[in-house]
Amino acid sequence: MRGFPQQVLAFIKKKRLLRAGDRVCVACSGGADSIALLHVLKQHEQTLDIQLSAVHVDHMLRGEESAADRLFVEEVCRKWGVPCYSTAIPVPDLLKAEGGNRQAVSRKVRYQYFTEVMKRERIQKLATAHHADDQLESLLMTGLRGTLQTGSFGIPVSRPIEGGQLVRPFLTVSRLAIENYVAASDLAFRQDPSNFSAAYTRNRLRLQVIPLLKEENPEAAVQAALLAESVQQDQQYLEEAAGQRLAELVSKSKSGNHIEMSAQAFRQCPAALQKRMLPLLLSYLYPKKHVNLTVQLAEQMQEILRCSSGTVFLHLPHDLLMIREYDDVRFLSADRAEQASDDREIIIGSDWSEPVAGYRFKVVSAAEKAEMGDVAIWYFSPEERLPLIIRKRKNGDRIQLAGMDRPKKVARLMIDEKVPLVLRENWPLIVTKEDEVLLIPGFRASKHLTESPAHGDWLLITQPVTGQAEK
To answer: CA 18 to CA 157: how far, in whole Å?
Structure first.
């Protein structure tokens, strides 16, 4: 079987998986795949100029049988002169005490031990025996879950792990090629009966679906592996481009209290970058936490970024708020939003007011009206309502809406508009000198304001505060 090892060595060289002087540890379960990988690397240890070892974990799920797997791996390593690190971890006890999915818990503790060994023994590379059939299974699994487009499109050839790098030298060779190599080399190996249990989706795909695919194309697994490799290269480029573009869009506010960006600038990015920028944005917002970007959360965030009109809020995980006021998008903690109280009363004059809640305001007579770009204009009269004042909401505030017989409580209106509780108390109002509420910026105007020039001699002008706002 000279061809199989040479194919694996060529792949290692092409992908630069191993370098001269690397300390390489094979994750060896004792099954045919990992025994074959350990054998190939041992046969070419000097050629590759690496220091080889093996690591094994007995999850104690199959009693004496899994304990025998451990003894088998240790004996193989002793015969081949390969240092072996092994342990037994009582996964059944962990499941009983903490609950969880058996496969997920097993994987977690297994890799914890792998990284522990890598750090202690100063091992740079962990080699696993995932092959082309595993890649095909993975693509089918993620496709069935509906997450194929959101992940890494299958198993990567290599990836960083705590303590070093995980590499997969077998990823483009088929299970059949490995089995033929094992048979030709007369290698003994262990069988895990759970691999044949129909209780697991992956096993059903392996035993029932993939054989049908191979009837149509015997090289289906290898073709899937090549496809995954090509798509992963495209995804890597797009991920890097998305990261660069997001870094240009996102910035900290001058006060340092929140993160901000432009909805319009986000929309101008290609769709392929937009969907990749959202999980990166979550990583930026939660540097010390892992927050999963669900389909629902992605759709909600995209909906907010889809336009630049009005004011919209979204509760994000871990008490973070996403607020879009016209084009300006802010991300801030609920605590900071609650602390953002401003008890001042600001008189609105003929010059622009200071920014309040993402807007600025001024009042002019109809005779002074001029072109001012992206503004909203409200007409009102009589002059006795002046001056208009910006203040925070008070208990008992009401606004007389058009078409309603009685004034509506501002608090009730803000609940109807789904304004987060932490922002309701501090949201500004525009009131007359008699303290009558005329406008809730970003939401509703009273019946005393109109967009028709025929119904007022004075203008209340509002403008969203952006980098493009007129001076």
So the answer is: 12
